[in-house]
Write a structure and sequence with these properties.
Number of strands: 0
Shape: globular
Distance between the termini: 44 Å
Number of domains: 1
Largest sheet: none
Strand content: under 5%
Radius of gyration: 17 Å
Length: 93
């Protein structure tokens, strides 16, 4: 479980650091909100743990899902419940 949590944290931290680096390289006049960075990393950790548990994966899945964030979470839910969505649509038509 520790490796899954670490994977989500590292994925989120990597994505946040890439955003900060992009901002610094482009020399934007934006202030870097480090509080938001830490909240983002915590959310990425939660998404990593959820996705790894959902898919039965480990560190690698948690790392990728922590990096991809909510986009991956939305895709997983759509894949998992695709049949339910399709059958509900067919019933309405």
């Amino acid at each position: 479980m520790f490796s899954i949590i670490l994977g989500g944290l590292l994925g989120g931290a990597l994505r946040g650091i890439m955003g900060i680096a992009k901002s610094l390289i482009l020399k934007k006049e934006e202030q870097i909100n480090y509080g938001w960075f830490f909240v983002s990393v915590a959310v990425a950790m939660a998404i990593g743990v959820f996705a790894a548990s959902f898919m039965g994966g480990g560190f690698e899945i948690a790392l990728l899902s922590g990096y991809a964030g909510s986009d991956l979470l939305e895709s997983l839910v759509k894949l998992k419940f695709k049949e339910k969505f399709e059958s509900a649509i067919k019933l309405k038509v």
